[in-house]
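Case study 2.
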Amino acid sequence: MTRKQRKLPLYVQIKNKMVTNVRQGIWKPGKPIPSESQLMELFNVSRTTIRQSIRDLVQNGILETRRGAPTKVREIPQENMSNPGVFHHETGSEMAVKVLRAERLKKNEYARSQLNLQSDQDVFFMERLRLADGLPIGYQQLYVPLEISDKISELAGGAFDIFPKLGEQNIHYKNIKESVSASNATQYEADLLGLVPGEALVDILRTTIGMEDLPIEHSRTKYITRSFHYQVEIGR
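Prediction:
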């Protein structure tokens, strides 16, 4: 995959705009969206592009189509985890974020492999602390493609979970793959978090997949165990 190939296809750009119309209430659940001809005029694209965008949104459960009836909004796409039974909870009342480092990385093979980038593509990297009541409770390394680095930088100091905020800027995600395990604090991590090296941490690996089925974020976040709770609810 080249840098040119990674640029969002036109139908994906249109699909993201359509998702934004639904999310902002311009197109309401249960109501018809504009006709194909109207959408072609609205977005200045071909009928093929419109149909491909609609087809993907139907597959994602956002729109619904029936023979002989107009396409309707099925549900408002959510900006949270795809599994509503999984909950993360950080202990503290006054939450904040501190950016330690934000820079363009070259020749970072680990990040490139996680983001499905080519060897000639650089990566935007951020290193941040999660603060609760003024004290560090978590440490994060976050990698994203360069094409969204500017928008990430704007949000870096205000939101620890960035991608729900990016939906407001037409960068939406399709799903999130996350694994949780335990690890021991390195000397560097211990110094940042005020711990003794070797203390146990909650270790979360996460990859966010965009609407075009490509990774748009990979992160590793480590929490002090007493400051983080992980809860799963199954059933109705």
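The domain at 3-73 is CATH 1.10.10.10 (Arc Repressor Mutant, subunit A).
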